[in-house]
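C-alpha coordinates please, single chain.
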Amino acid sequence: MNDIIWIAGFFDGEGSIHLTTNGCIQVRIYNKNIDALKFIQSKFPAGRIYKYNSCYNIRFNGKKALTFLEAILPYLKVRKKEAELAVEYLKNDSRNIDIYRQMINKHKGDNL
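Here you go.
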Protein backbone atom coordinates (compact mmCIF):
# COMPACT_ATOMS: atom_id res chain seq x y z
CA MET A 1 0.00 0.00 0.00
CA ASN A 2 2.78 2.47 0.86
CA ASP A 3 4.32 1.85 -2.56
CA ILE A 4 1.05 2.77 -4.27
CA ILE A 5 0.79 5.95 -2.20
CA TRP A 6 4.35 6.88 -3.18
CA ILE A 7 3.60 6.18 -6.85
CA ALA A 8 0.46 8.34 -6.64
CA GLY A 9 2.50 11.23 -5.24
CA PHE A 10 5.16 10.74 -7.90
CA PHE A 11 2.46 10.77 -10.58
CA ASP A 12 0.89 13.92 -9.10
CA GLY A 13 4.23 15.69 -9.55
CA GLU A 14 5.68 14.12 -12.69
CA GLY A 15 2.75 12.55 -14.54
CA SER A 16 0.29 13.52 -17.21
CA ILE A 17 -2.79 12.13 -18.92
CA HIS A 18 -3.18 12.52 -22.66
CA LEU A 19 -5.90 11.81 -25.16
CA THR A 20 -4.26 10.66 -28.39
CA THR A 21 -5.61 11.63 -31.80
CA ASN A 22 -7.17 8.17 -32.19
CA GLY A 23 -9.07 8.57 -28.91
CA CYS A 24 -6.82 6.48 -26.65
CA ILE A 25 -5.97 7.56 -23.12
CA GLN A 26 -2.25 7.55 -22.45
CA VAL A 27 -0.72 8.03 -19.01
CA ARG A 28 2.92 9.19 -18.90
CA ILE A 29 5.41 9.82 -16.14
CA TYR A 30 8.65 11.59 -17.08
CA ASN A 31 11.82 11.58 -15.02
CA LYS A 32 15.59 11.53 -15.42
CA ASN A 33 15.86 8.81 -12.78
CA ILE A 34 15.23 5.56 -14.63
CA ASP A 35 15.35 3.64 -11.34
CA ALA A 36 12.22 5.45 -10.13
CA LEU A 37 10.42 4.45 -13.33
CA LYS A 38 11.68 0.88 -13.08
CA PHE A 39 10.28 0.79 -9.54
CA ILE A 40 6.88 1.87 -10.87
CA GLN A 41 7.15 -0.74 -13.61
CA SER A 42 7.90 -3.41 -10.99
CA LYS A 43 4.50 -2.65 -9.41
CA PHE A 44 2.69 -2.10 -12.75
CA PRO A 45 4.43 -4.33 -15.33
CA ALA A 46 2.12 -3.19 -18.13
CA GLY A 47 3.99 0.12 -18.28
CA ARG A 48 6.65 0.51 -20.93
CA ILE A 49 9.73 2.67 -20.40
CA TYR A 50 11.03 4.88 -23.21
CA LYS A 51 14.03 7.18 -23.48
CA TYR A 52 13.11 10.71 -24.54
CA ASN A 53 16.00 13.14 -25.05
CA SER A 54 17.83 13.32 -21.73
CA CYS A 55 15.09 11.72 -19.66
CA TYR A 56 12.85 8.66 -19.57
CA ASN A 57 9.14 8.09 -19.42
CA ILE A 58 6.87 5.22 -18.54
CA ARG A 59 3.61 4.93 -20.47
CA PHE A 60 0.34 3.15 -19.91
CA ASN A 61 -2.13 3.01 -22.81
CA GLY A 62 -5.84 2.27 -22.92
CA LYS A 63 -7.03 -0.39 -20.48
CA LYS A 64 -3.52 -0.59 -19.00
CA ALA A 65 -3.92 3.09 -18.11
CA LEU A 66 -7.26 2.24 -16.48
CA THR A 67 -5.65 -0.36 -14.21
CA PHE A 68 -2.91 2.08 -13.21
CA LEU A 69 -5.24 5.03 -12.61
CA GLU A 70 -7.75 3.00 -10.58
CA ALA A 71 -4.95 1.81 -8.28
CA ILE A 72 -3.57 5.29 -7.54
CA LEU A 73 -6.81 7.31 -7.73
CA PRO A 74 -7.66 7.21 -3.99
CA TYR A 75 -4.29 8.80 -3.17
CA LEU A 76 -4.10 11.50 -5.84
CA LYS A 77 -4.31 15.15 -4.85
CA VAL A 78 -3.25 17.31 -7.81
CA ARG A 79 -4.45 15.22 -10.75
CA LYS A 80 -7.44 13.56 -9.10
CA LYS A 81 -10.23 15.15 -11.18
CA GLU A 82 -8.29 14.61 -14.41
CA ALA A 83 -7.75 10.94 -13.48
CA GLU A 84 -11.43 10.52 -12.57
CA LEU A 85 -12.44 11.82 -16.00
CA ALA A 86 -9.97 9.50 -17.73
CA VAL A 87 -11.26 6.52 -15.73
CA GLU A 88 -14.85 7.43 -16.61
CA TYR A 89 -13.91 7.71 -20.29
CA LEU A 90 -12.07 4.37 -20.25
CA LYS A 91 -14.90 2.58 -18.46
CA ASN A 92 -17.32 3.78 -21.13
CA ASP A 93 -15.13 1.76 -23.52
CA SER A 94 -15.45 4.54 -26.04
CA ARG A 95 -12.99 6.02 -28.48
CA ASN A 96 -15.26 8.97 -29.08
CA ILE A 97 -13.01 11.97 -28.54
CA ASP A 98 -16.03 14.28 -28.39
CA ILE A 99 -17.29 12.45 -25.28
CA TYR A 100 -13.98 13.09 -23.51
CA ARG A 101 -13.98 16.75 -24.57
CA GLN A 102 -17.54 17.13 -23.28
CA MET A 103 -16.47 15.64 -19.95
CA ILE A 104 -13.52 18.05 -19.76
CA ASN A 105 -15.71 21.05 -20.66
CA LYS A 106 -18.26 20.02 -18.05
CA HIS A 107 -15.55 20.28 -15.39
CA LYS A 108 -13.60 23.27 -16.76
CA GLY A 109 -13.85 25.22 -13.53
CA ASP A 110 -12.54 22.30 -11.48
CA ASN A 111 -8.83 23.17 -11.92
CA LEU A 112 -7.91 20.33 -14.26
